[in-house]
Structure formats: C-alpha cells, structure tokens
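thought: user wants a sequence for this fold. calling inverse folding tool.
action: design(structure=
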C-alpha cells in the first residue's frame, strides 16, 4: 500500500511568522505573570500604608521583585548592580513611601542607631544635662540614646553593659558623678567604641571634662573686676580633684595667701564656714564657693549675720544648677560647667568613632562660662 505524504506547500515566510508569533506570545505571557506578581506585591505594600502600617524593607523588596540584600545595596549605593536597577529600586521606594525604621536602617547600614549612656549618677545632677546634650546632637542623625543607671554596683554594671551589647548599640558613653573616679565596671575591650565624659577613664581612652581651673579663674577675675579684694574660697573635700583644681586656680589669681576652706559639698557647710569666719574676725568682701549648694549656705549664713549680699559681700557659686541658682535670694552668679556641650561633644565623638573615624586618645577639657545674676552686684571695673 502506498503511503500518502502530507506536505505543507505554504511559503516558508509564513512558517517563520507563526514561529515568531508563538515565541513572542510566550514571552508576553511570562512578562505579564512576572509583573502581575510584582504589581500585586506593590499594591499590598500600598494597602498596608493605607491601613496605617509601615512599609517595610521586605515590602519594598517584593514590590521591586528583588531580594532584601539587593534593596540594601541599592539604597546604600554599595555592591555591584546595573545602574538602572539601582535607580528603579530607589524610584519604587519613593513611590510606595518607604521610610526606613531603626530595624530597616540597621539592615541597610549594619548599625542599630542607638547609643548607650552608662552612669552611676543616679540623682541625675550631672548625667541628665549631659544626656540632653548627647540627645540634642544626635537626634537629627536619627540616633536614639538610652540611659542605664548602675549606682555603684559592679554586677549591675555588667548586666547593663551586656544588655547594651545585646541591643547592638553603636557605642557607649560612660559618665559619673565626679571626674576622678571610674565607673565600677570595666569597659575596656568592648566591640563598640567607648567615650568617657565627666568620669575617669583609661589612659588610652577619649575623655571629656569641664575645665575646673579655668572656671575658677573666671570666677575670681569677676570678683576682682568688681573691686573685691578680700577674697575667700569655701569648697568641698580635698579628696576631690575638682576641689583641688579650683582651689589652686583661686590662689593663683587671688594670691598665694588667700584663704581656702575645705568641707562638704553641702549648704550646712557653707553656713558653718561663714559663721566661723565672722567669729574669727575675718570679714571678706568676696566669697567664691566650690558649688552652688555651698553658695546657698553662705548666703543664708550672711543673712543671719546681718551682712547684705551683694551690698557687703559678693558671692559666686560653681555648677549653675539652675534649680538652686535661679531660686536663691538674691539669684546666684555662678560658673556653668557646660555639661550639655560636654554631652554634645561626647555624642558626636562616639558616633564618629562608630563610623570609623580616628581620634587621638586623651583628656579634652571644655571651658566653663560665667553666668551673672544678682549675688555679686556692681559693675566691673574698667
């Protein structure tokens, strides 16, 4: 039996056309499915935003049809990828309103955008203004600061340091209630940068402190400018380096024989010192106090003696603790240690260290400022 052959006698160009049409049909179908999936993801991200939900880095990755790591590289301008891909991811991020939160920014930059502040100043006299300066310096950079108070407990200190490291802080600022004592916890060898502000630190560390000597000199210069010549310095214990530095500066400017009286950092000591002076027949016309609490006590003691401030005696404090200085009668002229600026400098430094910048170790002293109120009176001599 003869086999019948079926031949297609259509021209060859018609065969080619059909093959092309089938190929493009398959390509169109693949693109349609791919972009349909991307659009659905994009719409889901927009729906989340409409519901008040934050658009996440994962939403952006789905909307762009790429991985989270690719999004990270695109937004961080790192890694190797086509420039049109990078531009497309950035465009989609803008269109769907992607705003990285702390976690997303951490994924993008491998940072937590948090700084830990560790202190044993549980009363907050020094740590709170310092923290305000840290926060003010870093808030515009999207960095948060959280405070851990460790009192003087080494075990509590270790617990808080471990908690900070668990939170992957970008750095730690250590601060205390005096400049010549270290915190009761070892911060050396940590995997994050550490800066010390208003507390002692290792020799090879970066440390910030107020310039006590410069501040004391400024106080004495002000008293002398008002014509006061019989000066006395009433201050805190000799076991504090701050008390010694201020006393040394006082004698350099008031004279080597100028009287210095050491006691406690308290109002009762200020009152007691003044009563002792008058009982001994010494009547200074200018008194420089080691802190504002002592100055309050001095003013109270002078009032008991019938001595007017500032008419008979000018009084200058140290610290500018506004709750005391502003409410004294008369309001207290004092030296501001600029703790807020101290915190600002410490915050910017620890942030820069976390970004890889290099700094020379050592102590950096910031100048103090004279704040003139009503306890000195008069006008500076010209």
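)
observation: tool returned 382 residues.
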């Amino acid at each position: 039996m003869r086999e019948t052959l079926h031949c297609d006698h259509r021209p060859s160009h018609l065969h080619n056309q059909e093959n092309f049409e089938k190929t493009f049909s398959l390509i169109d179908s693949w693109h349609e499915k791919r972009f349909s999936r991307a659009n659905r993801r994009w719409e889901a991200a927009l729906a989340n935003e409409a519901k008040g939900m934050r658009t996440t880095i994962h939403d952006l990755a789905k909307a762009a049809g790429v991985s989270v790591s690719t999004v990270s590289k695109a937004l961080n301008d790192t890694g190797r990828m086509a420039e049109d891909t990078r531009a497309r991811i950035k465009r989609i991020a803008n269109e769907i309103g992607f705003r990285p939160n702390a976690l997303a920014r951490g994924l993008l930059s491998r940072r937590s955008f948090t700084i830990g502040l560790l202190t044993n100043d549980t009363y907050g006299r020094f740590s709170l203004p310092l923290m305000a300066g840290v926060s003010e310096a870093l808030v515009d950079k999207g960095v948060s600061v959280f405070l851990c108070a460790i009192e003087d407990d080494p075990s509590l200190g270790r617990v808080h340091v471990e908690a900070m490291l668990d939170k992957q802080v970008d750095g730690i600022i250590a601060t205390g209630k005096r400049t010549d004592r270290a915190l009761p916890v070892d911060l050396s060898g940590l995997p994050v940068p550490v800066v010390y502000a208003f507390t002692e630190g290792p020799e090879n560390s970066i440390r910030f402190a107020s310039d006590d000597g410069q501040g004391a000199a400024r106080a004495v210069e002000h008293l002398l400018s008002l014509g006061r010549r019989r000066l006395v310095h009433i201050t805190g214990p000799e076991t504090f380096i701050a008390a010694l530095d201020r006393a040394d500066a006082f004698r350099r400017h008031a004279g080597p024989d100028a009287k210095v009286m050491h006691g406690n950092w308290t109002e009762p000591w200020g009152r007691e010192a003044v009563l002792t002076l008058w009982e001994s027949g010494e009547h200074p016309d200018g008194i420089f106090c080691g802190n504002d609490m002592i100055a309050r006590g001095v003013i109270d003691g002078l009032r008991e003696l019938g001595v007017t401030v500032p008419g008979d005696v000018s009084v200058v404090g140290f610290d500018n603790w506004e709750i005391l200085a502003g409410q004294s009668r008369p309001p207290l002229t004092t030296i501001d240690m600029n703790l807020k600026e101290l915190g600002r400098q410490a915050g910017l430094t620890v942030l820069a260290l976390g970004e890889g910048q290099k700094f020379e170790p050592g102590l950096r002293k910031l100048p103090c400022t004279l704040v003139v109120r009503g306890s000195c009176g008069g006008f500076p001599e010209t």
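thought: summarizing for user.
answer: Here is the designed sequence. The domain at 35-107 is CATH 1.10.260.40 (434 Repressor (Amino-terminal Domain)).
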